[in-house]
DNA sequence: CGTTGAGTTGATGGAACTCAAATAGCGTGG
DNA sequence: CCACGCTATTTGAGTTCCATCAACTCAACG
């Protein structure tokens, strides 16, 4: 497994933008930006691409020349700088922006790999920066999004540092559900694109422990699990658990 | 202890800026920005202030209207949103910028408290943003700093999630030393401004465990500890430990 | 129908937490 | 300057949670 080449600079669909047809247009920041700036979308040279499972969107060390909108699927962002194990830093979901945190640097500090077959849009950074220069509104929104990316890292930190395994898994499921709901993708049932091991690498656990927690949450009647499908049964109890601080029962 | 009022909007020294006299001028981003923009520093309306131990620089929910340069001392940034325990997110050291991550939001998402008596400069956000508008160089540097703040959160995440207690403490000491060195504050010996418990709250451990780790590192001859003073003896071994992944000995 | 990879379940040990007690620093007032 | 008292820190003993190792189930696929 683990295919190798980066997708950024090659294999884009020649397909034109067509943002108006995209189901995510309502929540797509670049699309709104273009609209706000009242300029033709073509100026941004947004391209679409499809990434098969295991393929990298970009790799550590790549030049930073674009960011990405996830249209469908799921991308994991990992740190390859140290150690053998793949440290998962973030899962990017449909409607979310990928690679914002790299924009300050010359080369990517992380690697992003598709956890399942995914579709995304490539937004060239230089063109977008130019757009920012023309519209202060776009620029300040963009600044907010970048700062937001830092906040997400902090939330994960709190989840991992202060909570026990069960609370971590509960919190993970909640945040997944909430984020999918924001972009209108999910109902009461969610399909996990990633494996138990990838979840474990994200939460700082082992896959066996994640599995046990799923079982335990199901036993308590908070969720139902069938392979990669999770159905939310008792949201309130789940929320209570997720904000517990490595105690209680 | 734990005094209450925020320092941001009152009690500034009436003292004028005088950046040229500040020992940190060489590494002070706002000062450089002013210089680059070739405008009088007075425009930024930078004020100095002194914060006694335990006093808040700003609190969660405060309006975001400034960021801060640490001139001396140490400020801990904590998350008060949940749970009883004070979750320490970051220690800001002399020469570093505080509250960057809040700039995207209307109100502060965290609280910052002086861990020891500290001196800092208050940089009004609106005035600074205006300066950014005039100088693209300043703006892009500023963007880099904001993205950098997110990277710091990720580094802490990796330290806490993937390493055991000893490696966390070793990594913490190293990063402290490195950061103090960058700004020319430290030699072979460092004075910790924070208590063992605050370190524990930062590293996701208990104060007893932190203490045991200090003792163990000293026993192995990597450092010497005398109360809040830490002397670095074997940097190489410390670095090896800090990048170990919860194994080895 | 065997193979392969993901997921579940069980048994065991170790790392870190908890509770508890002893000691060392530090500021304060005599 | 010293004694006092407070807090921070260290050290010890027992317990808990999760990682580890290992066996087993299940579904997909040739």
Question: How much is the radius of gyration of chain A in Å?
Answer: 19 Å
The sequence of SSEs of chain A as H and E is HEEEEEEHHHEHHEEH
**Roughly what fraction of the amino acids of chain A lie in strands?**
15-25%
Helix/strand class of chain A: alpha+beta
Pair with the most extensive interface? A-B, 34 and 34 residues
* Helical stretch tally of chain A: 7
First and last CA, distance of chain A = 39 Å
**Low-pLDDT segments of chain A:** 1-5, 8-16
Kindly state the percentage of residues in helix of chain A. Answer: 25-40%
Please summarize the sheet with the most strands of chain A: 6 strands, antiparallel
Q: What is the general shape of chain A? A: globular
Number of strands of chain A: 9
Mean pLDDT of chain A: 85
Oligomer: homodimer
Key descriptive features of the protein:
three-stranded antiparallel beta sheet; DNA-binding; six-stranded antiparallel beta sheet; homodimer
Describe this structure in words.
The structure is a homodimer of 249-residue chains. With 249 residues, chain A is an alpha+beta fold. Chain A has seven helices and nine strands. In chain A, strands 1, 2, 3, 4, 5 and 6 form a six-stranded antiparallel beta sheet that branches. The first copy, chain A, is globular, with a radius of gyration of 19 Å. The N terminus of chain A is likely disordered. At the A-B interface, helix 3 of A face helix 3 of B. Chain B binds a DNA duplex (30 and 30 nucleotides) through helix 6.
